[in-house]
Amino acid sequence: MATPGIAANAYAQLARMGDQVSGGLAKTIGDAPGAGSGASFGDMLKNAIQSVEEAGRNSDMQGKALAAGKADLVDVATAVAETETAVQALVSVRDKVIASYQQIMQMPI
Q1: How far is it, in rounded angstroms, from Cα 82 to Cα 32?
Q2: Are 19 and 3 in contact (CB under 8 A)?
């Protein structure tokens, strides 16, 4: 089970990513986003996946260190909980993207 601090960090990271992207989005149909004023959606997605991958690597390293007797059980549990929260957040975002795509595909032309 994830601790509230880990969940808060995950939500804060998602909020920061949203702020980075919203700076470059057009306000109306005629407005064009500034060239280089914000991160692209692809860059945001790449960063999110890399952070989840890094959390997984950290969890693996902590598990190996525990097996070698060099890590504390609390550190391992925290690393695993952080990884679990990051994966859950990424899956949640993926589900929202898929649901949005399905809604767009159902719109009449």
Answers
A1: 37
A2: no
| pLDDT of res. 18 | 59
Report how far Cα 62 is from the mean position of its chain's Cα atoms. 21
Q: Name the pLDDT band for 19 (thresholds 50, 70, 90).
A: low
H helical segments located in the chain: 4-22, 41-67, 73-106
Distances (CA, A) of 39 to 12, 57, 89: 17, 25, 20
Instruction: Say if residue 12's pLDDT is above 90.
Output: no
- What crossing angle do the helices spanning 73-106 and 41-67 adopt, rounded to 10°? 150
Tokens of 76: 């391992």
Q: Report the distance separating Cα 23 and Cα 52, nearest Å.
A: 24
- What pTM value is reported for the model? 0.60
